[in-house]
Structure formats: C-alpha cells, structure tokens
Amino acid sequence: MTDDVVILVVLILAHVIGDFYLQTGRSIRHKSAKEAKLAILANLRHGASHALLAFTVLGITLSFELALLGTSLVIGTSHFVIDFIKSRLSACKGSLFCFAVDQLLHLVILVSVWAYLFDYFALINLATLREAITLEVLGIALAYLVILKPTSILIQFVLKPWRIADSADSSEQDSDDHLDKAGSLIGILERFIILTLILMNQFTAIGFVIAAKSILRFKEESRHEYVLLGTITSLAIVLMIGLIALSLL
Fold first, then answer.
1. How far apart are CA 100 and CA 102, in angstroms?
2. Rounded to whole angstroms, what are the CA distances from 182 to 172, 175, 178, 209?
3. Which among 108, 121, 171, 248 is least buried, having the fewest CB atoms inside 10 angstroms?
4. Can you tell me the distance from the alpha carbon of 211 to that of 149, in angstroms, rounded to the nearest whole number?
5. Residue 129 resides in a domain
6. Backbone angles phi, psi at 59, to 5 degrees
7. What predicted TM-score, i.e. pTM, was given to this entire model?
8. Contact predicate 147/241, CB 8 Å
9. Residue 22 is part of which domain span?
10. pLDDT tens track for 26-78
11. Could you report the per-residue pLDDT of 190-244, keeping only the tens digit for each?
C-alpha cells in the first residue's frame, strides 16, 4: 500500500472517530437546538475537533508543518458548515437520506484535501477521463443501475396479478403497502449483494443471502407464495445480468 493511500485511510479513520465516537448525546442535541447561539457553538466545537484530529493525524503520518494547518482548517470549517446547515433543516431530523448526504459530503471534502496534498488534481484531464471509461467500467455501472430501480419496477409488474388478489380487503391496504415498500428495499439490497458476490466469483455465498429469507413468516399462506415468486424473479434477473457483466471482466 502506497503512502498516499495510507494518508487517505488515516483521514477517513479520524473522521469516523470524530463523528461517531467523540460525540456525546448531549453535543448532538445541542447541535440541533432551536436556539441558534447554542447550535452554532456546538457545531463550532465539533468542527474544531475534526480540524484538530486532522492536523494531528496528518502531522504524525507526514510531518508537523504549517501548511497542514490550512488543510486541517478546511476540513474543520467544512464540517461545521455542513453539519450546521443540516441541523437547521427540520426535514433532516431522523432522515436517513440527510445522514447519507452529510457523510458523502464529508467524504468528498476529505478526498479533495487528500488529492490536493498529493497533487492528484493535476492528473485530472479529459485524456485521463477517457482512459478511465472502458467497456468493463460501463458494463459494471450499467449492471448495478439495472438491478436496482428498473428491476424493482419489472418485479412489480410480475407480481401485480397476485398483489391485486391479495389486497382485496381495503382495510389491510395500508399495511400491505408498507410491507411492499419494505420488501422492495430488501429486494434492492439483496440484488446489490448478490451482484457484488457474482462479480467477485463468490457464488457459494449467494446461498446464504437467499437462506436469510427462510426466516420470514406470514399468517397467510398466500404471502409465502407472493414473497417466493418475488424472490425467484429477483434472483433470476440479477443472475442473468451478473453473468453478463462478469463476462465483460
């Protein structure tokens, strides 16, 4: 492993420690407090802790230089801005989407700082981007995109006749809709894992993913057939797409 990659891993490690292990429940509540002053101070402390962590790990792995102070301040300041904006958005309270976007933005900042430190931005040009776009890369990207939303829609069409018959009682319509949404998410995660295992040539491990659904229990026997049909359809599609993508590698 090259030294520059080690630095990137160390920066991400410092972020994980600062974001998930050094924060207390009290500081998290203060960051989202309605009182602006309290929220600003809490987010400033949190951003400062990330700046200090980044400066410390960069100083240990590289050397303690004044130039590292600027990059550490960028990490700390960006953390403050991102977290403060998120704390002011009421729609982000308890939102998985906001959490994912928040972490993605932090990761982008870390990678950008790392790329700046090792002059990787100088390597980014149209020629290198063209070289990176290969049939293998496009095939894998297309495979993942197809097995997510498009496959979910296709499975809904396949299951539609059974879904209508199973939902005749309008009093249970809402609960069935919630179950279908949860089932759709489970199916997406399942196909993502299976495709990844196929691309890694780990076909045996796919059996463990499918076996996990054997723990499902429903009062109505029709629900067993409904889930089984959806599972088999999902598995058939992801196997077909996965094997095609694997042939491109």
1. 5
2. 16, 11, 6, 17
3. 171
4. 23
5. no
6. -65, -40
7. 0.72
8. yes
9. 3-124
10. 888 888 888 888 889 999 999 999 999 999 988 888 877 777 888 899 999 99
11. 889 999 999 998 888 888 877 776 665 555 555 667 777 788 888 899 999 999 9
